[in-house]
Amino acid sequence: MRLSNSLTQNIQQAYGIFPIGKSFDLICRDLLLGKTRAWLLGINGMCKTEVLQQIFSDLQDPLFAPQETIGDLERYVSSKIGYIQTELCADWDKIVSAVLCGPCALFVDGFSEAVLLDTRSYPARSIAEPDTERVTAGSRDGFVETMLFNANLIRRRIRDPKLTFAVRSIGYESHTDVAAAYIDGYVDEALLKALFSKLETLRVTSLTMGAKSLEELLVPKRWYHPLPSIQQTQRPDVACSYLMEGNLLLIVDNSPSVLILPSTIFQFTQSPEDYYKSPVVGSYSRLLRFFCIFISLFLLPVFLLLGRFYPALADSLALFPLTRNDPGSLFLYVLFAELALDLFQYSAAHSPSSYSGSLSIVGGLILSDVAIDLHWVSHEVMFYAAATMLSSLALSSVAFSEGIRCYRLFLLLLTGLFGLWGFLAGSVLILCSLLTTPSFGGKSYFWPLFPFNGRALATLLFRRPTYRAQPSNVWKRERRKQGAAS
């Protein structure tokens, strides 16, 4: 629907669309620009008041704007409004969407176009290092909930003119801005086209949980796929490294997490900490993290299998010496320890930071000591459960670690109920779940293991020096520049 030439009709239309007078944050103002009537509409708190005051102070100054009437609105805006982010719009849908996003709309009598003044100023928190991706060295900044700030953090690191941020609006009611960041010439064009096609066909009212909601919309999964299909990061250095490798980034407004497309299972085992250490130390940390995946998944189930169903074998191997000769209750011991440690992990994560550390440590010591005295659990069970939890915490991705925990609980239940056959069946079902985990764009979730790429797999398993990790075309481009300069 287009605007009318009559200011009175446009004001009436605005009153029919917006709850003006009912919602306290909607502001409107009658103005006179010379002898021409005008009307301003905006949202309080999203507009920079001092900028608007300066703009209209100049427009109402007879020395600056001596004309009494406005004959050409486009010429008037070009000559009298020096603010950069200004445009004319004649569509009511675009005006409503713009006002709800923060810009103000100035309606002028006699013209079927409104002047949009983008003086928005979102409330935002300061840029700080994300708690879930801390490193001992490196940058201390992280993404925030404002999309423009996040784009600036990326642009600051990659000053390439081909770096592009393509914006789409998602959600019938929320109209959430989603920016696809990519470097032209590096990105897979087929993947980029598939992403834009998917975003345009999404049917959703709002992205309630920001980046997480968009992830579930892009890659629908079944309940038996607990592992994440799309990697998220809150670190700009990690996001930029994937951009330089040809990946896509999805920046969702009001969300501090950035989605990385496409994603494979090996990406969830990477950590920026590896690249802030020497190649040898980084490779050791990475291999240890891979080993922790298997410890987190199989240590408790194997302990339960040998301790309950094969106690003689466990004693002969001296791997799991049980102080209590009651294999039947071992299943309950293991379940209690697993759930208790998960409870402490969640309580520490959601407690105020001032006492979350002391709460988890003191509570864990008290609970384990009392549980052992009450014969609810044994020393061996608590030890292997604690080793399992430490292995889970060593994984860099929280979402990946929680998916492994779901697999472990499933394997514990089958092992405790059916013994060796339950353990084997559970392992096969977990493998099937892993192999069928979907990823975006039809890419293989297990690349470069399948389809096999030995060079890429070695790069993922071992931390390579920077001069060897750079793409070959980077060095060739630099050599061409040096040759042209000489």
H-E string: HEEHHEHEEHEEHHEHEEHHHHHHHHH
Q: What share of the residues lie within helices?
A: 40-55%
**Could you report the average pLDDT, rounded to the nearest whole number?**
83
| N- and C-termini, Cα separation | 60 Å
What's the β-strand tally? 10
Radius of gyration: 30 Å
- Secondary-structure-derived class: alpha+beta
Q: Globular, elongated, flat, extended or rod-shaped: what is the shape?
A: elongated
Uncertain spans, ≥5 residues at pLDDT below 50? Answer: 472-480
What's the helix count? 17
Total domain modules: 3
Tell me the major beta sheet: 5 strands, antiparallel
Q: Kindly estimate the percentage of residues that lie in beta strands according to DSSP.
A: 5-15%
Strand order of the largest sheet: 1-2-4-5-3
Structure write-up:
50% of the residues lie in helices and 12% in strands. The chain is built from 17 helices and ten strands. It has helices at 7-17, 49-59, 73-80, 92-101, 147-157, 189-200, 211-218, 236-244, 279-309, 311-317, 327-350, 353-373, 379-393, 398-435, 454-461, 466-469, 472-485; strands spanning 26-33, 36-43, 86-89, 104-108, 114-117, 163-170, 176-183, 231-233, 248-252, 258-261. The strands form two sheets. A five-stranded antiparallel sheet has the order 1-2-4-5-3, sandwiched between helices. A five-stranded antiparallel sheet has the order 6-7-9-10-8, with helices on both faces. Strand 4 and strand 5 form a beta hairpin. Helix 9 runs antiparallel to helix 13 (379-393) and helix 11 (327-350) packs across helix 13. The model is unreliable at 472-480 (pLDDT under 50).
